[in-house]
Design brief:
The chain is α/β, with parallel strands linked by helices. It is built from 16 helices and 13 strands. It has three domains: 28-245, 3-Layer(aba) Sandwich (Rossmann fold), CATH 3.40.50.620; 271-346, Orthogonal Bundle (Tyrosyl-Transfer RNA Synthetase), CATH 1.10.240.10; 356-424, RNA-binding S4 domain (Structural Genomics Hypothetical 15.5 Kd Protein In mrcA-pckA Intergenic Region, Chain A), CATH 3.10.290.10. It is 45% helix and 13% strand. Helix 1 (28-38) packs across helix 2 (47-60) and helix 15 packs across helix 16 (379-387). The longest helix has 17 residues, at 194-210. The chain is globular and about 80 Å long. The termini are far apart.
Length: 425
């Protein structure tokens, strides 16, 4: 891992990329790279600058430096996180250098983006543990052999108090307060800590240290990404372009995908669960998932859209999506087996392998049984499932919440995917 100085040296002034006459030819290959860049993205700013950067890279053979910074605030990645990672992989496949930046320093500040309260910073131990699993999971999307891994503590720790003050002098409080979440909190009288102003500054400084040509992020990161452009110009560097990707709605099709909302698909969860969850999305949301998550070409996706419009069952197309994503994070064989398992359950069948649970206390009430067998988080939730007709014992729907089961072995099912073979004694 190469070292980075705390105060990057000034580079030659950037050329005027907004000029209508590009310095390098705009070839068909450059246009194709531009189309790949734009696929599914929310904004690419400024587009002309990025086009000229792509042209320069092709003409000179010098790959562009593309940065994605992620704070390891949680150890697990879901499909919503992979939207930006997929774009990184597409640009990586074009031959450019992708930099997976782990924000071990900025994690200790806590990113206030989109929040109405201060987020508690993580401890160094939490950051280290999360970062270890974070990149391992991200490598399921990125090519690890072609990915530059960096930690922003490399240059942020080296700044020291003097460097931090010098950095803070390059931006005004008035400009910082233009950020939407800060403005709302200020008007509402919600406290804003001084250290929160440091987060966008430090994220922007990462771009200076890495000499990034492009930085990617979600739509909620736009202010921070633009900070990188500003600071690069302050340090005499050619400013990076920014590319924002939309936030992916979760399985409910309403809220953004989030573990806290329970509408997520984790990239390390079992293949059967991943496949079944993806089949549960709406027919309309399926097309957004195709655009943002599938590696199929836009022409292929457009063809599938036409086929559905002409009468093809949308479930058939959704199966293609579910199998592609399941195979990416598991294997083609696992995806085939997940499809077979789903079809078996849909016909009311019992999978070959289900958890075996032994419980004492017969006769045992159905609510307590479901909780103790791990099929429901609580007795009250178990009884709610009974009331909704979502519980079966040996294939028969349970309608009596007062049911007690005597000693014996039963196949208990909750919903379509949860099974257990329960032996009561």
């Amino acid at each position: 891992m190469s070292s980075v100085t705390s105060q990057p040296s000034a580079a030659a002034p950037a050329q005027d990329l907004s000029s209508p006459a590009p310095k390098y030819p705009i070839t068909d290959k450059v246009r194709e790279a531009m189309n790949i860049s734009l696929r599914g993205c929310e904004e690419l700013l400024p587009e002309t600058e990025w086009l000229h950067k792509l042209a320069r890279a092709e003409a000179t053979g010098v790959p562009l430096r593309i940065k994605l910074g992620l704070d390891p605030t949680a150890p697990d990645i879901h499909l919503g996180h992979t939207v930006v990672l997929n774009k990184m992989r597409q640009l990586q496949d074009l031959g450019h250098t992708v930099i997976f930046l782990i924000g071990d320093f900025t994690s200790m500040i806590g990113d206030p983006s989109g929040r109405n309260t201060t987020r508690p910073p993580l401890t160094a131990e939490q950051i280290k543990a999360n970062a270890e699993t974070y990149y391992k999971q991200a490598s399921l999307v990125l090519d690890p052999e072609k990915t530059e891994i960096r930690y922003n503590s490399e240059w942020s720790d080296a700044l020291g108090a003097r460097g931090m003050i010098q950095l803070a002098a390059k931006y005004t409080v008035a400009r910082m307060m233009e950020r939407d979440d800060f403005t709302k909190r200020f008007k509402a009288g919600t406290p804003i800590s001084i250290h929160e102003f440091l987060y966008p500054l430090m994220q922007g400084y990462d771009s200076v240290a890495l000499r990034a040509d492009l930085e990617l992020g979600g739509t909620d990161q736009k202010f921070n990404l633009l900070m990188g452009r500003h600071l690069q110009q302050e340090y005499g560097q050619e400013p990076q372009c920014i590319l924002t990707m939309p936030l992916l709605e979760g399985l409910d099709g309403v809220e953004k995908m989030s573990k806290s909302k329970g509408n997520y698909v984790g990239i390390t969860e079992p293949a059967n669960d991943m496949f079944a969850k993806l089949l549960s999305i709406s027919d309309e949301l399926m097309w957004k998932y195709f655009t943002l998550l599938s590696f199929r070409s836009e022409a292929e996706i457009a063809k599938l859209r036409r086929e559905v419009a002409d009468g093809r069952n949308p479930k058939e197309v959704k199966v293609l999506l579910a199998k592609e994503i399941t195979a990416r994070f598991h294997s083609a064989r696992a995806a085939d087996e997940a499809e077979a398992d789903f079809n078996l359950r849909a016909r009311g069948g019992v999978p070959d392998e289900i958890p075996e649970v032994s419980l004492p206390g017969a006769p045992l009430a159905i609510g307590a049984l479901l909780k103790q067998a791990g099929l429901a988080p609580s007795t009250s939730e178990a009884l709610r499932l009974v009331d909704q007709g979502g519980v079966r014992v040996d294939g028969a729907v349970v309608s009596d919440r007062a049911l007690k089961l005597s000693s014996g072995t039963y196949v208990v099912q909750v919903g379509k995917r949860k099974f257990a073979r329960v032996t009561l004694a």
